[in-house]
Write a structure and sequence with these properties.
single chain; Growth Hormone, Chain: A; mainly alpha
Length: about 170
Amino acid sequence: MRIDSHRFIFFLASIAALTSLSIDMSLPSVPMIENHFGIPSGRGGLTMSLFLAGYALTPLIGGPLSDRLGRRPVLLNSLALFALSSLACCLAPSFRMLLLFRLLQGCAAGVSTTLPIAIVSDVFEGSGARQRMSEIATINGIMPLVVPAFGTMVISVGGWRVLFGAQAI
């Protein structure tokens, strides 16, 4: 994939949109999760809180780590952790395990979503960099509008577990 192609920018924007995918896509599943695990109403929101806790902490580690080890290995490892933790959410045997896996998913997303901007800064300069960053920001801005409907579609087909399986993919 050429770095000056639209596919490359769409790829980076897709990575930057993992947070929206993880949060906005999962919102419709919260009542189903509460019902499945037999927990009180409102407790399912902890899945969002722990995701955001992991997401908030790891950019502080991921940025310097990618400066030291390189963008590619850190990005690939964080994407692999995201996929594995999403799959683990899909298979979670208890609500506590689901919370743990959502925390890991948030940690992975926190590292992954910060790297596209760093990659654009590494590869492009001046107006080219500004244009690519605005394209990524535009796609990132559209995602919260589209993803909840997609999440609802996935849930209607297969339930909340399938939703996390789709996130793994």
